[in-house]
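User: quick one - fold this with 2,3-dihydroxy-benzoic acid bound?
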Amino acid sequence: MSIAFTPWPESFAKTYREKGYWTDRPLVDLIDHAPQDNVAVLCGERSLTYRDLCSQSKKLAAYLQRLGLKSGDTAVVQLPNIAEFYVVFFALMRIGVAPVNALFSHNESELKAYVKQIEPTLLIASDGHALFRNDAFFKTLSESSEGLKHALIVGSAGWADSLDSVLRLSTDVSLSAQPSRADDVAFFQLSGGSTGTPKLIPRTHNDYFFSVRRSAEICQFTSSTHYLCALPCAHNFPMSSPGAFGAFHVGGCVVMASSPDATTCFELIKRHQVTVAALVPPALALWLQAAPTYKDALTSLVLMQVGGAKLSESLARQVPDVLGCQLQQILGMAEGLVNYTRLDDDIDTIVTTQGRPMCSLDEVKVIDEAGNEVGANVEGELVTRGPYTVRGYFKAPEHNAKVFDHEGFYHSGDLVRRDENGYLTVVGRDKDQINRGGEKIAAEEIENLLLKHELVMHSALVSMPDDMMGEKSCAFVVPKMASHGMKSITLRKYLRGFGVADYKVPDRFEFIDSLPLTPVGKPNKVALREVIRQRLLQDKKL
Ligand code: AMP
Ligand code: DBH
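Assistant: Sure. Structure tokens for the protein plus 2,3-dihydroxy-benzoic acid:
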């Protein structure tokens, strides 16, 4: 059985195939067709060749098949940056099981929401995460979703089957199952979101494979590429732009870093002669600070990719000198469209723009509020459709009706300017989201939780400027009683009680008597952002 999703119209699919963009191959070909003796993944002291990666993922696939998992089933996976992430991903691909790969920073609230949406059969997680040290949370999850029968845990928690033992002890690799069809859902990508519940993005083999292939080509990945995976491995950027999958596609090597921290990464770069790294701007800023002390550690690095949030021109300009390598900016989204500055672009284009779309069939329009296209260098909203941009979120008809128009264009909520050469520069955002140094927070999700507090009457979450992160989050709260004595710490604790990911807990709370409203009666977030900016100026925090 295949998983329901919004397909591309037949006429588009035909063009994408005719152009050779969709090749009808399953994603597992990324590793099955790679030179098997090459090293695919370096993780701590472990080194896995493509042969190892293939055989381990076959073992796991055979084991899961014996458990009864079948094509069309789904799984929730939450793993840190370890080699098993890829073993698991490709094992699931072999038998047509579609995972949601949660970020390791995700917590009870996010995992519950994913389980509710996809009703998985299987959970694969790590006992390195507090939620999975015992079976309590798994029990809660399986009570809410009756199909969720199986758990596999990395580590030695002892309450579920151990992934390590399956990979070590199992010998049977006989498989009767097949990958899902190439134009069916392969897995779900996560959206940064702007709504109360996080939306899932169904990605097909065909569309994702294309974006990986084309990205690897643009970034000139080869079998000598050593790619440092320092961002959370489940994120679309280090997975596919070109990311680990781009490295696999050309038989290159992925070096796993447990965090983007400069000292951790610099040691790995030196030890494994890393050639390409991908970061969000706050991590880049820390690398730039640390690099002068470690300069000889970075000599192998040829390309530094930066994306996920707006990079300032001043940081961008430092990269070639301080890191001794080339910069590439990327404006991407888990929904699809990815823009790259090209390796042979002039330096001004590289430091001032976020690149241009990766292929000629990416249709990008920049539109005004009335929906009309604006001219070159005029600000407007980026809307797009193309061979790897999805046509709808998973099971979200109402939200889809708002963000996908009748021609199938995805309205990104990003405000951009496009120059005469098609290069995009991000200038703002028209969606209710905070971009905390690349980590996206949907304002509504946190506002809804705050409103559940018995003493909260209204709440509005807005971004506030921050030197390091670009943006942080500030919650304006109107308490029910004027002399409330309510404290930030109370609300922080309250939110943590729901088990939301740490990065979503507001950095600052402001208690006010009423929210300023727009003419239609919604919280006036423009005004609130100005209020907090003024307060930060007063506090000399800006
Ligand atoms: P997500 O929906 O979580 O995949 O996040 C994608 C969003 O991240 C985009 O729509 C942009 O708002 C933001 N983004 C990604 N890359 C950049 C960048 N280079 N500059 C500014 N914003 C970015
Ligand atoms: O922020 C993103 O989602 C993002 C950034 C860079 C992305 O999805 C990508 C590249 O593929």
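One thing worth noting: Residues 236-237, 240-241, 307-308, 330, 332-334, 338 surround 2,3-dihydroxy-benzoic acid (ligand 2) (CB under 6 Å).
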